[in-house]
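Lab channel / #folding
Pinned by the channel admin:
"Please post every new chain as: sequence first, then the structure tokens as a reply. Keep commentary short and put observations after the output so the thread stays searchable."

First post following the new format, from NK:
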Amino acid sequence: MRDLAWPALLRPILFRLDPERAHHATLALARRCPRLLGALAGGRPPAGLARPLLGRTIPSPIGLAAGLDKDALALPLWERLGLGFVEVGTVTPRPQPGNPRPRVHRLPAERALINRMGFPSDGAEAVGARLEALRAAGRWPTIPVALNLGKNKDTPAEEAHVDYARVAARLAPLADWLVVNVSSPNTPGLRALQAREPLLRILEATRGAAAGRPVLLKLAPDLEPEALAEAVDLAIEGGAAGIVATNTTITRPVAHPDGLPEGGLSGAPLFPLARARIAAALAAAAGRVPVIGVGGVDRPERAADLLAMGCAAVQVYTGLIYEGPGLVRRLNAHLARRA
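Reply from TO:
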């Protein structure tokens, strides 16, 4: 009965709102009522799902992907839904508004989103202060908290490493690990930072400021398999402790009679492409570092598939928008039955 509450009642109400407005309304509710939402839709993961990841034990291999809670507004909620870890961000050094609105578009029939957010962020100082306040108030989750890092839009590419180091220095003491995001399609020139020289410079600077925390790299699904394998090798050469694969795609695996806006596509149609690139990342990593799989995980079979392929964990985001917060409980229950 609880699983029906989202699609039958709440989703039609929220889907009448602009997508970004609905997102902020949901986060506001989550911030005020984490216990209630957790009681309605969540619960602790079943015993037997716990596993090690990056020096911590996660109670479930299902995590929250970056982008949903960009500014750590609802951090106490995610553990209550049964997630095993959460990735906050993307956080930039200085506050920035992101791209002009409208910048999020729903494709309900395809269970997909297209966003061109452009890293809207309260900035590292504000996010850090918010996290410190949660910790001081005794509201810090017991699950690992990762921070996803980005650069400001107006920072020149040749100075990008300074931005990543600056965010890392501010937030590393509050994070279990850090994720370098050079793969969003919505900041001009960002994906060019996946090339050898800038990427090694960014990883070196971030690791130097990370206070010993593991630093991971998030890669784009639009890299061809060979290029993605090279990026994984390069990341490991640069000291990355893991890979997050993948981000949103600028390809359009769905057709639409009115055409589709620019931006990164996420959700169910991304899964075939993401799965292929995750396989390439796993092959390239060859067990040297963990790979976290993300992209189109909106049903239990997809989560189980990526874990069976060798992913250390998987992440969800758009699936929560369409399936509701009870998705996490269904994923956990399915994995527990297979254990």
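NK: The mean pLDDT is 90.
TO: also worth noting, The radius of gyration is 18 Å.
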